[in-house]
Design brief:
It is an enzyme of class 4 (lyase). GO terms for molecular function: carbonate dehydratase activity; zinc ion binding. Its EC number is 4.2.1.1. Helices cover 45% and strands 11% of the residues. The two termini are 36 Å apart. It is built from twelve helices and five strands. It has one domain: Carbonic anhydrase (Beta-carbonic Anhydrase, Chain A). It binds zinc ion. Zinc ion (ZN) binds next to α8.
């Protein structure tokens, strides 16, 4: 039995919370009335997050995506509120999780999705590989949030100056032109090969070829994930929306692409 039939964990979380006497409302409002938590929780956290919609309250993909973009704007402006980072919130997640979006992005240390979207623990389910390339193993992780935990949004996120895409572009161009490739201390032949379709798709695009390849990679990844066995039916039924974006290291902003 490899097929996933374990959707409904969000409901399970709500039920568990109710059974524990916390109630749905109190569970999802914990940060707003957050009391004496340690860390960056407590009254300071409550004051900081005041006025920022709680991602956990949002049900539809469009609202969740807008909330992530709003969080990204706070991050870019240096006004991040770091929600859902207090002790009480952490403890409320012991019995279950209900991430509202899955994010598939690059391993680049400058592009941490939880930070750049100004979210907290339990809010988004992140899978990261170099150049956000995937194979059957990785795609099972990417699809877990939408397929098993009912996250209605999947974000594929590329970024400016992606080292993996740049390296793949160099390698594929050198192979095509028969030129010698500068030696690197590490090799990533599988990643280069996985990025070949993006390299081919970006040919003929105007502007910087690596930027075009970064964008092409996001768009091809979106299309491939939409057809994944764990996700295709959700997409067809309108239960899952897949969007793409590219993050700018310079501005801190995510630009939606389609
Ligand atoms: Zn990268």
């Amino acid at each position: 039995m490899s097929t996933l039939h374990i959707r409904g964990n969000r409901r399970a979380l709500l039920t568990t919370a109710g059974a524990a006497g916390l109630g749905v409302v109190s569970v999802f409002a914990l940060d707003a009335c957050s009391a004496d938590g340690g860390g960056i929780g407590g009254e300071d956290a409550a004051a900081q997050t005041a006025g920022v919609p709680d991602l956990q309250d949002l049900e539809n993909a469009e609202d969740i995506w807008q909330a992530l973009l709003d969080g990204n704007q706070r991050w870019a402006d240096g006004a991040a509120v770091h929600p859902h980072a207090d002790v009480q919130w952490r403890e409320s997640l012991v019995e279950g999780q209900a991430p509202r979006a899955a994010v598939f992005s690059c391993v680049d240390s400058r592009v941490a999705p939880e930070l750049i979207f100004d979210t907290g623990v339990g809010d988004i389910m992140v899978t990261r590989t170099a150049g956000e390339v995937f194979d059957p193993l990785v795609s099972e992780s990417v699809s877990y949030g939408p397929a098993a935990l009912e996250a209605p949004l999947l974000v594929v996120l590329g970024h400016q100056k992606c080292g993996a895409v740049t390296a793949a572009h160099e390698a594929l161009l050198a192979a095509e032109e028969g030129t010698e490739l500068e030696e690197h201390e590490y090799a990533l032949p599988e990643t280069v090969e996985a990025l070949r379709p993006a390299y081919e798709a970006a040919k003929g695009e105007s502007g910087d070829p690596v930027d075009a390849m970064i964008k092409a990679n996001v768009l091809l990844t979106i299309e491939a994930l939409k057809g994944h066995p764990n996700l295709a039916e959700l997409v067809a039924d309108g239960e899952l929306t897949v969007v793409g974006g590219v993050y700018s290291l310079e501005t801190g902003l995510v630009t939606e692409i389609s």
